[in-house]
Amino acid sequence: MNRLTTSFRMLQLALRLTATLAGALLLVPAPASAQTHDHAQPASKSAAFHQDMRKLWSDHVIWTRDYVVAAVDGRPDAQAAAGRLMKNQEDIGAAVGSIYGKAAGDQLTTLLKEHIAIAVDIITFAKAGDKVSQQQADAKWHRNGEAIADFLSKANPNWPRATLVNMMNAHLSTTTDEVVARLTKNWEADVRAFDKVYAHILAMSDALADGIVKQFPDKFRG
After folding, report:
1. Distance in angstroms (rounded) separating the CA atoms of residues 80 and 86
2. pLDDT digits 0-9 by tens, 178-214
3. pLDDT band for position 222 (50/70/90)?
4. 3 in a domain, yes or no?
5. How many whole angstroms separate alpha carbon 152 and alpha carbon 107?
6. Would 30 be classed as within a structural domain?
7. For the whole model, what pTM was predicted?
8. CB count, 10 Å around CB of 172?
9. Number of domains in the chain
10. Dihedral angle at the C-alpha atoms of 136, 121, 116, 193, nearest 10 degrees?
11. Which of 9, 27, 54, 178 has the lowest tally of Cβ within 10 angstroms?
12. Is residue 103 part of a domain?
C-alpha cells in the first residue's frame, strides 16, 4: 500500500469519526439556560394590567415632553405632538371606561383633555412673559387636578381624595419644573426634571392600577 492510499484511508476514518461524534452530540439535551422558553408562564392578569397602565401614563408624560420641547423652541412639530397627546387622554379614558363604563371613561377623557389644554396655555403665557395670565392658568390647572382627584376618588374607595390630590399636585409641580428648565435653557435641570416626572408617573400609575385590582379582584384572577 503506497503512502497516498494510506493517507486517503486515514482521512476517511477521521471523517467517519467526526460524523459519529456530531450525531452523538445532537442527542445530548441542551442545558437549561440554552433551551427555549416555549413553556414560560404568561404574565398574570394583574401584572399585565399594571404594565398596560404604565404604558398609557408613560405616553402621557413622554408626549407632554415632546410637546414642551417643540412649543418652547417654536418648532413646527408642536401641533402634531399636541394631537398625539390629546389622543393619549382618549386612550386613558377608554382604559378606565373598560372598567367603570363608557360614560365614566368619557368624563375622565374630558377632564384630562382640559388638563392638557391648560398646560398648553401656561406654556404660551410663559413664553410671552405674561405672568398674570400664567398664574391664572396655573390656578385653573390645579382646580382641574382636584376635579380629576374628585372623579377618581368617587369611583374607587381605594383611592382616597387627599392622596389623589397630592399625586396630581406632584404631577403638576414636576411638569412645571420641566417647562421652566426648558424655558431658561437649563439643560441639566431639564433632564433632572423629566427624571422626576417619569418616576412620579410610574408610581401614580401603579397606585391607580393597585386600586382597580383591589376593587375588582375577580377580574384579575389567574
Report:
1. 10
2. 999 999 999 999 999 999 999 999 999 999 999 999 9
3. confident
4. no
5. 10
6. no
7. 0.80
8. 19
9. 1
10. -90
11. 27
12. yes
| Residue 55, all three cell numbers | 404604558
Question: Concatenated DSSP letters for the chain?
Answer: --HHHHHHHHHHHHHHHHHHHHHHHHTSPPPGGGS--TTPPPPPHHHHHHHHHHHHHHHHHHHHHHHHHHHHHT-TTHHHHHHHHHHHHHHHHHHHHHHH-HHHHHHHHHHHHHHHHHHHHHHHHHHHT-HHHHHHHHHHHHHHHHHHHHHHHHH-TTS-HHHHHHHHHHHHHHHHHHHHHHHTT-HHHHHHHHHHHHHHHHHHHHHHHHHHHHH-GGGG--
Q: 204 lies in a domain? A: yes
Q: Which residue do the cell numbers 399594571 mark?
A: 50
Which triple of cell numbers denotes residue 94? 377608554
Task: Give the pLDDT score at 42.
Answer: 64
Query: How many CB atoms within 10 Å of residue 50?
Result: 20
Q: Cα–Cα distance between 164 and 167 in angstroms, integer?
A: 5
**Which domain, by its residues, includes 115?**
45-220
Q: pLDDT by residue (tens digit) across 3-58?
A: 434 443 443 444 454 444 444 434 444 444 444 444 555 679 999 999 999 999 99
Q: Are 182 and 71 contacting, i.e. CB atoms less than 8 angstroms apart?
A: no
